[in-house]
């Protein structure tokens, strides 16, 4: 311990002023700087508290009216988060003001006051009031006693924190789109920067108050407010209709005041379980560990060490194990990070896949299923490739086929997709122009067809490399190739031939032609089967075709 003048000025090695007990140290209070400046500090904190609370409430009210006329606007997130930060700052100022007011009152009380003031009054007056008046008096005294035990500053701190949590949660929307609010946004962003500069001046003043114990915790809350203001101004300056990140950032900055508000609520709840003595100097309740992390360089372990020492008197520096952990933390972290980076070179290939191993961006090997080792990222990487997985692909895709199909009940009517009659249109059918002949005249006609391909990526290493590097979209490549083949093949066929003797060899001819084109493109795709699911006249002409055939 280091001691200055008077026992009340005892300071711990962490720079934390020990609290004063009026029953022991009242005579030396006038010599303590924090008690000498208590009246002036209380007035200053009151002015700052009113300004911060007024601006914060104004921001929330403006956000409410903006939500009425323009819901989902960027202004909601900016105003609410900025107002929430100001309300938390006001809560901290109010908590510090209550401590300063206690010190100002402590200089005015007698040196010794008995814990039972009624002992100084002599005989108590006889209460001859009725039972109702006595009940009201007891209820009033009980309420006042409970309020003194909890503390008015604790209730205010919890109330401000709840308001902040409700406000931030009300505007939380990570799907917020960009907004083009440039004319007014630049002016508001400039105002936020000016306010941030004023808060920076206040933060520097508080950091220089070495004799004021509450100055350092308040400077942390001011830094938190500055960070929120700067982020909000950045979002306003860069907000555009085609930019999403300013809107998302404006919402995400609400995490900082939300975290501080949750911490304040926890501190307020825990303070209910600590005995409150009006004769002992109160401790600042609105001290934020999260806001203390907003420093450069960040020292989270040092902040935790200070918090443990202030709250529980635990000095981690006196424990050998923690001292060793602090010294070994960076070397162990470096070893773990290096080991984790080295393990990025170990790859597990599942049974239904293969992997193309790239070394310095060049493919050197195709890995089969199993465990393989190579250079760590980014010097080596593995691209996944299918290994024998079979796919079925329709030659044409309609918008209805991409929609999610609902399961039909087993006892209900069959689904529309099961209807294979000619007079109905089907999902995967494609209209095709084919040759037609009527006597000595040649013409063309339209038919509907449903052709499907069963394919897979070739099982050889060359096919895996070709499918990975030569084809960006294999299904689209197969469809485009099949469309070209079908147009060429059906140009010389008539409907009667397709429905008759040429139906058997049609799928084989189409499959060979598509496979030949895919091999010429070096796609690495292997066509296993070609299925002509349906081929018939259009649905509107099906009845006429049946009538002609019947005649």
From TrEMBL:
GO CC annotation: membrane
Lineage: superkingdom: Bacteria
Residue ranges that the Swiss-Prot or TrEMBL entry lists as coiled coil: none
InterPro entries: Band7/mec-2_domain, Band_7, Band_7/SPFH_dom_sf
Protein name as it appears in the record: Band 7 protein
Transmembrane segments: 45-66, 72-93, 150-172, 184-202, 222-241, 247-270, 328-346
Domain Band residue range list: 344-549
Localization (cell): Membrane
Gene3D superfamilies to which the protein is assigned, alphabetical: Band 7 domain
PANTHER family referenced in this protein's UniProt entry, alphabetically: STOMATIN-LIKE PROTEIN 2, MITOCHONDRIAL (PTHR43327:SF10)
Membrane topology: Single-pass membrane protein
Keywords of the record: Membrane, Transmembrane, Transmembrane helix
């Amino acid at each position: 311990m280091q001691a200055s003048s008077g026992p009340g000025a005892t300071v711990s090695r962490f720079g934390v002023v020990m609290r004063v007990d009026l029953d022991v140290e009242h005579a030396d209070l006038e010599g303590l700087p924090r008690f000498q400046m208590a009246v002036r500090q209380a007035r200053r904190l009151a002015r700052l508290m009113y300004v911060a609370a007024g601006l914060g409430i104004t921001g929330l009210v403006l956000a409410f009216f903006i939500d009425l006329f323009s819901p989902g606007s960027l202004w909601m997130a900016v105003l609410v988060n900025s107002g929430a930060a100001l309300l938390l700052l006001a809560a901290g100022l109010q908590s510090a003001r209550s401590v300063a007011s206690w010190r100002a009152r402590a200089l005015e009380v007698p040196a010794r006051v008995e814990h039972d003031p009624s002992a100084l009054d002599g005989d108590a007056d006889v209460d001859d009031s009725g039972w109702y008046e006595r009940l009201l008096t007891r209820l009033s005294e009980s309420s006042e006693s409970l309020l003194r035990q909890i503390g008015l500053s604790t209730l205010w701190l919890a109330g401000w924190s709840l308001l902040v949590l409700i406000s931030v949660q009300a505007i939380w929307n990570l799907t917020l789109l960009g907004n083009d609010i440039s004319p007014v946004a630049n002016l508001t962003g400039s105002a936020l920067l000016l306010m941030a500069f004023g808060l920076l001046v206040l933060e520097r003043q508080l950091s220089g108050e070495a004799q004021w114990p509450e100055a350092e915790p308040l400077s942390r809350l001011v830094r938190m407010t500055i960070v929120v203001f700067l982020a909000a101004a950045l979002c306003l300056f860069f907000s555009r209709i085609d930019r999403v990140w300013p809107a998302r950032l404006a919402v995400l900055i609400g995490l900082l005041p939300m975290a501080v508000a949750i911490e304040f609520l926890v501190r307020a709840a825990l303070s209910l379980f600590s005995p409150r003595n009006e004769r002992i100097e109160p401790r600042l309740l609105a001290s934020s560990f999260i806001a203390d992390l907003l420093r450069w360089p960040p020292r989270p372990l040092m902040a935790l060490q200070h918090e443990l020492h202030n709250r529980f008197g635990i000095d981690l520096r006196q424990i050998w194990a923690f001292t060793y952990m602090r010294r070994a933390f960076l070397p162990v972290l470096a070893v773990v990070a290096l080991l984790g980076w080295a393990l990025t070179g170990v790859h597990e290939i599942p049974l239904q896949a293969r992997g193309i191993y790239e070394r310095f961006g060049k493919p050197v090997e195709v890995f089969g299923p199993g465990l393989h080792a190579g250079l760590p990222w980014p010097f080596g990487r593995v691209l996944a490739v299918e290994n024998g997985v079979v796919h079925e692909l329709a030659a044409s895709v309609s918008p209805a086929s991409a929609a999610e199909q609902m399961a039909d009940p087993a006892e209900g009517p069959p689904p529309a997709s099961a209807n294979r009659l000619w007079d109905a249109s089907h999902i995967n059918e494609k209209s095709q122009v084919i040759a037609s002949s009527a006597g000595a005249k040649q013409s063309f006609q339209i038919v509907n067809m449903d052709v499907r391909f069963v394919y897979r990526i070739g099982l050889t290493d060359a096919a895996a490399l070709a499918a990975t590097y030569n084809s960006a979209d294999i299904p689209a490549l197969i469809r485009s190739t099949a469309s070209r083949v079908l147009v060429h093949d059906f140009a010389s066929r008539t409907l009667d031939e397709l429905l008759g003797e040429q139906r058997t060899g049609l799928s084989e001819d189409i499959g060979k032609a598509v496979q030949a084109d895919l091999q010429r493109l070096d796609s690495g795709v292997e066509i296993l089967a070609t299925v002509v699911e349906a081929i018939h006249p259009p649905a509107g002409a099906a009845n006429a075709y049946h009538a002609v055939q019947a005649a």
